[in-house]
Each structure stands twice: as structure tokens, then as C-alpha cells.
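tool_call: predict_structure(chain=1)
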Amino acid sequence: MASSALAATLARHKIHYGWVIVAVTLLTTVVTAAAMSTPGVLIVPLEQEFGWNDAQISSALAIRLMLFGLFGPFAAAFMNRYGVRAVMVGAVILISTGFLVSLGMHEVWQLVLLWGIVVGVGTGLTAMVLAVTVATRWFNHRRGLVMGIFAASNATGQLLFLPVIAQMATSYGWRMALVLVCCMLAIAGIVALIFMRDRPGDIGLPLYGETAVAPPPPAGAGLVSLLLSPLVVLKDAARVPIFWVLFGTFFVCGCSTNGLIQTHFITLCHDYGLPAVTAASVLAMMGFFDFFGTIGSGWLSDRFDPRWLLFWYYGLRGLSLLYLPFTNFTFYGLSLFAVFYGLDWIATVPPTVKLTADRFGRERAGIVFGWVFAGHQIGAASAAFGAGLIRTEYFTYLPAFFIAGALCIIAALAVVSVRKSSGAGIAATPVPARG
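tool_result:
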């Protein structure tokens, strides 16, 4: 296979094939993140062509965001049973199918089915659990760096391609914009099919930072047990109060990022006379600064109390959202907002992961964080639908931004109410392996 030949060539130059896996995963997550954010660019074109209102369109986007989060804990079960490569390629096919079939849609229920359910499940298969799985399977050393790159690039990918997609939609229509996204997905799927491997042992390599090749995992429980294991972990985690603090604050995080800004920012700017391409450029600027903000947040999380980092992140984000309506929506004012807000876009992830690992242990941290991330996406879905409903009823988004800003201030106060870790948490128990 091409992956075995490339691994042997790289080994002669003392380069571990794990970095190829990082590149392939990075390509897939960036492209699927771009697909995740594309519908937010197309709200106005759909309104103009079909006469649908913002609340109707936002209902489909809300379902997509919710499934993206809720499917995460279960995506790990599919990766354990069918392999990472199969899940990645399957996700790309599912997302592309949803977009391509939607080229002929003309009813709202078709939008909900294709952009809400099909695309929501497809993107959920490549949620944060994919990054966690790849980082832990392929890296012992540099694992934190790899996770930081994945986390930053996932959010950046959601914003980076928006100016191109917006320009395509403006010049050639929303259907051609979807075709462009599907071409990008096809490239990512082909690259994953050729070069992705499930574990380093598949090509005779140890984990990066180790010298011995790990044997394949023993056969574990079947698919039913794998699918039930996230529910068992959720039941145990729900008994620990900090779980609900993390779940609630991440709910606010989703409200104030993916659900509100990513979904409705371009339409908000349209209401104030800014072209879609200009608004998308502001979002891309946020993505650029987010990349550095998130990696910097990971560095800070290793050195400072994550509770106080989250206090500042949520507090400053809340202030920036309250400030947004006073920018007068000039490009200069929005650029200042983009820099300030972009540095904080997904900076909450590293300290939240650290708190989760500290309180729930390594064995269950991934699945517990999957449920915390589900809270993030439930919040995103609530804001995506709620903001669209507010605009439909009151012809303005501004109340939604004021509500999100206030929720961020509440989240900042809630997270510092958590007592410092004493090492207590739910008992770590093995999660069923590949079966």
C-alpha cells in the first residue's frame, strides 16, 4: 500500500509516519469544518430564492449543530469497531451526499432532512473525538501539541474558507458554492483512503515517542456494548456536580460561537448593508487569530489554574459580544471585534479538557468530554434557532447578541465557583475496545 511505502521512506529520514496521519486528519477536519460552516453563508440566498424565513432555515441549522455534538460520543464506538479510516471516508461521503442531493431541493422539510440530519450526522463523525482518537493512538510524546493543532485548526477551518464560499455564492449562486465544498470533501476523502491507517502497529511502527510496537488491542465487547458505554459514563458523570458546571458553561460557549456568530454573523452584517464577502472576511480574520489564541490557551492551561482562565475567557467574550452592536458595523470596527473575539473563539477548549481530565481521570476523560461537547452543540443549536426566530419576529438580531453576552458573564462567574481539584471524580473503568 502507498502508506506502507511512504512510511518506509520517511523512516529512512527519521520521520515518523504519525506526522502524515496528523496532516491527513488535519485536512479532513479542516474541510469538514468548512462544510459545517457553509450553510451560515447561504441563509440570505435561500431566503431570496425560496421565500423561506430565517426561523425556518435556522431550524435545519440547529438540528445540524445538535447532531454534530450528540453524535460525538458514539462516533468513538464506530472508530473502535470499524476503524478511523472507514469512519472518515464514510463521513465525507455522507456530507457530500447531503449537499449534492440538496441541489434539487425546493421544500423546507428537504432542507431539514439534508442539511440538518444527513450533514449533521456526517460532521458528527469527524467531531473532536476524531482528534482525540488520532492523538492518543499515534502519539505518546507531543500529544498535547497535536491536540492543540487539531483544536485550533478545526475552528479555523470553519471560518477560513468562508470568503471563498461567499464569493462563489455571490458570483455563481449557492449551488455552485456547494459543488465547490463537495469537491474539497472528495479530495479529503481520497487522501484519507490512500494514506490513513488506524494504528501505528498496522505498518509496524511504535507510537511516536516509544520504541516498542504495541500489539493490536484485544477483541472486546460487541457493537451494542460499545454504543452503550457512553451512556454508562454519562450516568456516572451526571452524579458529579462539576460535570454540570462544565456542561453548562460549554452550553454557553456554543451559544456564543458556533450557534450565533458562525451561523448568523454574515446575515447580521447583511442587515446593516455589508456585503457577504466582506462579512466572511471578518469571520476569516477571527479564524486566523483563533489559531494562535487556542494554541496559546493550551500553553497557559499547563501553567495556570484552568478555572481562572475560563473566567477571563468567558468574561471577555461576553464583553466583546455586548460591544459588537456599538461598532456601527464599519469594517474597521468589526476588525477590532474580530481580533479581540477571535483570540477567544475556542480558547475555552484546552482548560475545559484539563478540568475534565483532572476530575474524571484519563480513562473516561474522552467520553466525558464528548458529553460536555454535546452541551456545547446543544447551546449552539439553541442560539442558531433562537437568533433566527428573534430576527423573524423583531427584524433584528441585537437581542440575541445581548442575551449571549449576558450568558457569558454568568458562565464566567459559575466556573470560578468550582472548588479546586482534590483528585476526586468518578472511578475510571475500562472502556470496551475493538470488537
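agent: Confidence is low (pLDDT under 50) at residues 427-435. Proceeding to next step.
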